[in-house]
Fold this protein.
Amino acid sequence: MTDHQDFVANKLQLHRADAVELVTDYLDNELNAYDLSAFEAHLAQCEGCTVFVDQIKMTVTLTRSANGEEVEILPRNFADLVAMLKERANRQA
């Protein structure tokens, strides 16, 4: 684990590279008590980081549940999107 002084000094500013490292450490329960408290305080105030952490958690869950099987994730409206794009392409042709 690296020194997270830049993060701790400013709880509301988190650089992308720091976020990735902190989230990994957070999910692996490797943050010390001080950094854990600061990170969770930041999550409580930052919707973007909260969404990012939730996305990583979902990715880990899906990866673990795949058990070597291929997992296909499509938006609910995928068929509508494909139809719209085909229609648009036909109009432009």
